[in-house]
Amino acid sequence: MTFQDWLILFGAPILVVVAVFAVVFLRHPRPQSRYRAGRPYDFKPVWFVARNGAVPGDSGSHAAELEAAHGEAVASGPKGGSHGKW
Fold it and tell me: Mind listing the UniProt keywords for this protein, alphabetically (predicted)?
């Protein structure tokens, strides 16, 4: 076997293992703070929306009322979802 064969058969897999090891175990010199259970949450909230102004400021308190097909108001409240009551 030639030297190139050895590099292909053993060098490439070893290089892949070293690269994965470096990505997994070598940490950034300044670790980012993160929330730990039981400690107070004092991080700034981050909201992701499609564009500015997409979410009105007080939409939760003045939500539009749905109407049924025959014009009556539909009762609002927590419904549906994985734990909802139908």
Answer: Membrane, Transmembrane, Transmembrane helix
Cα–Cα distance measured from residue 78 to residue 40, given in angstroms and rounded to the nearest whole number: 28
Longest dimension (CA), the chain: 84
Distance separating alpha carbons of residues 13 and 19, to the nearest angstrom: 10
Q: Are 41 and 35 in contact, with CB atoms under 8 Å apart?
A: yes
Contact 43, 35 (CB under 8 A): yes
- Residue whose C-alpha is closest to residue 78's, from 68, 63, 57: 63
pTM here? 0.36
What confidence tens digit (pLDDT) does each residue in 46-55 have? Answer: 777 666 665 5
Distance of CA 83 to the CA centre of its chain: 21
Number of H helices, E strands in the chain: 2, 0
